Amino acid sequence: MLEFIELYNNLPIPPQKPKKKSSLSKRNRPNRASKISIPPLPLTLRLARLLLGSFTLVLMASLSLTLGAIVAVFDAKVTDTVPDWGQPLAQTDSPLPSRRLSRTLNLLVLGIEGGVTPTPDGQSSLPQPAETLWLMQFDPAQNAVSVLLIPPQTRVQIPDRGRNPVANAHSIGGVTLTSRVLSQTLNAIPIDRYIRADAATFRSFIDLLDGVELFVPESLSYQDSTQGIAVNLQPGWQTLKGEETLGFARFQKNEADRSGIHRQQMILQSVGDRLASPTLGSQLPRIVQLMHEYIDTNLTREELFGLVTLLQQRPSDGLKMVLLPGEFTTTRSVRIPYWNIDTTGRDRVLYHYFDRELNPGTQRDRAPTPQSPQTLKIALQNASGNPLILGQILAELKSRGYRNVYPISDWPDPQRHTQIIIQSGDIPAATALQILLPTAKLQSSSLGDLESEITIRIGEDAMDWKNLYGTP
């Protein structure tokens, strides 16, 4: 380009003809604004200008393409990563990995069907819908972990796509769109970090823990030729390795089967118990290091270590799990069952489990107020071994004003203590029931009957409640 500019500057200036004295009078002279005839430039000058103009156009086009490619790279990165707040959420004043979070952290956990290969820009090779969606809150001040389980079929508003299953948000816009949609759906709760893993990573993680101890409530057979998984489990307590645990988690009878939500919680509870095992304490740094290398996440290694430590050191009641309140629904236009959110239940869960205020415009006392005994759906499940006790407690609860109480199949694993399972997050209602059932323990999970709001799993201690329902 410099050679063309030099050629242009060194071209000879064409000789100008001497001006002739005009014979026109002042009155007859043409106006200065009139068209003036300019003599044509020499051929060499015209060629130089043509070459210089062509080169400039080519250079500008190249720059435009280059800038376009740069913008495309950044756009691709933005569509599949959660913006980093910059401020670390773990203490970093020590050369060793920190064991403490500096503040509450909200983590989005995504399970993906296909492979997830971490890349520098945070994208997976192929867009996949999310199979598993959890929102976890780690609160170091309360030494507690809350988990909201979100069915993949939950219908949400996706920008420019209308109402769709939340699982599709990941295949459309990756982690960023998924987190944005969920934040808007869940009363604008902030999402700080994410973890994304596929089946192979999950299987390897369970094997790294030397398996997890789980209770299999019924015979379960699962086969997936695409993933090379074949599982045949019998009822009872057993230690499951990675492949068996994956099959246990994935088993589904039909599209509307929500029992997988039960099994996800059972696995998470067992993983927490396994991490708290004294035999695993010395291996935690190695486990965290391997996790950080093989999962797709924007957590720093220090933050991940802080999360694992909090999950390990929490008290026995420090892990709370709850299913996003709602129900499976079909319509004429949507034949496939989808999860329709119960907005009142959602607000209650976010208030009690995530310390989240209600949306503007809703009544302030709507979330903390317990549901009326007349409408509260209570499932009774016998795990005491005494076939008569369920009917006696059922009659007693109805006499106390609880009208919507119904029995379900016995739980196959006998329980020493009665459990009041807070199925849909109504902690005040569960606390009121605990007054009537004095030795019962509150369990913040959704491990009860999926149609209920509270499930009472009757244990052997119920036989001592003679003052409640008389001698069995």
From TrEMBL:
Listed transmembrane segments: 50-74
Region of interest (Disordered), ranges: 13-35
> LytR/CpsA/Psr regulator C-terminal domain: which residues?
376-461
Q: Does the keyword Nucleotide-binding apply?
A: no
Record's InterPro entries? Answer: LytR/CpsA/Psr_C (IPR027381), LytR/CpsA/Psr_CW_biosynth (IPR050922), LytR_CpsA_psr (IPR004474)
Q: Which NCBIfam families match?
A: lytR_cpsA_psr
Q: What is this protein called?
A: LCP family protein
Instruction: State the organism of origin.
Output: Laspinema palackyanum D2a
Q: Where is the composition biased (Basic residues)?
A: 17-32
Q: Where is the signal peptide?
A: none
**For the Cell envelope-related transcriptional attenuator domain, which residue ranges apply?**
131-275
UniProt entry keywords in alphabetical sequence: Membrane, Transmembrane, Transmembrane helix
> Source organism's superkingdom?
Bacteria
Similarity comment text for this entry: Belongs to the LytR/CpsA/Psr (LCP) family.
Entry-linked Pfam families: LytR_C, LytR_cpsA_psr
